[in-house]
Amino acid sequence: MPSFELFIGNKNYSSWSLRPWIALRQKEIPFTETLVPFDFENGNPKFRDFSPSMKVPVLKDGDLTVWDSLAILEYAADRFPEKGLWPEEISARARARAVSAEMHSGFAALRNACPMNMRRPVEVLGVDDTVTADVNRILDVWTECLERSGGPFLFGDFTIADAMYAPVVSRFATYTLSESPVFQQYAAALTGTGAWQEWEKEALKETWYVAEDEI
Ligand SMILES: N[C@@H](CCC(=O)N[C@@H](CS)C(=O)NCC(=O)O)C(=O)O
User: Fold this and answer.
1) How many domains does the chain fold into?
2) What ligand 1 atom has the least distance to the C-alpha of 13?
3) Same domain, 58 and 130
4) Which uninterrupted H or E stretch holds 214?
5) Ligand 1: distance of its center to the CA of 201 in Å?
6) Is 132 helix (H, G, I), strand (E, B) or coil?
7) Are 107 and 171 contained in the same domain?
């Protein structure tokens, strides 16, 4: 029986939940999933029962509670060193941490203007210069990583860096933010994984409606 219990929000909208979920699934780390939707105007009061930050994702491992998507991924890497959640080689590992941290702390313009919404029909969204700057920086990150590693994932094999950028791949597709071959190539690798397909299939079945994410 898995000892990991991962609390997530709505699969259609919860970009932060997708990060640890796709990494655990892709690396075949067993876990049970508890989905607690946030389709309430002021959040879901049930979050109080399991989340110190009142946000998802949260991981429970026995008595331990880990909140925040990147902290959960780091903990999984510590618990399962044999799974290659970070690249093996030290400088690749440092760069994978840098691009993951950059995603975790940056790209606010893109995040705010283009919420993850897998169910939304694909269409072109007009965006301002701040969003375009975020899109261009992300394309540069992908280009550099894929050129160095040779792909198909940012550091060759799937790592935490791919989990961190997965929600952005969804946003790029939904709002047609780029037609660059680098995006097409990277999106094909990520969306081709069984883990992505399983998440997306369940996301598309959901009926919760979160007004603030329906731009
Ligand atoms: N920095 C946190 C952010 C988590 C976060 O903002 N989660 C959103 C869902 S994607 C949430 O729980 N929203 C519910 C709320 O704020 O009421 C992480 O990386 O886990």
Assistant:
1) 2
2) 10
3) no
4) none
5) 22
6) helix
7) yes
Whole-angstrom Cα distance, residue 38 to residue 35? 10
Could you tell me if 40 and 60 lie in one domain? yes
pLDDT tens across 120-151, in order? Answer: 999 999 999 999 999 999 999 999 999 999 99
Taking the CA of residue 68 as reference, the ligand 1 atom at the shortest distance is 20
**CATH code for position 31:** 3.40.30.10
Q: What is the pLDDT of residues 53-111, one digit of tens each?
A: 999 999 999 999 999 999 999 999 999 999 999 999 999 999 999 999 999 999 999 99
Measured from the Cα of 57, ligand 1's closest atom is 20
Q: Which domain holds residue 78?
A: 4-83+201-213
Neighbours of 154 (CB within 10 A): 29
User: 58 CA distance to ligand 1 centroid (A)?
Assistant: 10
Ligand 1 atom 1: the closest Cα is on which residue?
Answer: 68
Q: What's the pLDDT band for 33 if we cut at 50, 70, 90?
A: very high
Enter the pTM of the model. Answer: 0.97
Same domain, 99 and 167: yes
- 52: which 2 tokens? 């110190």
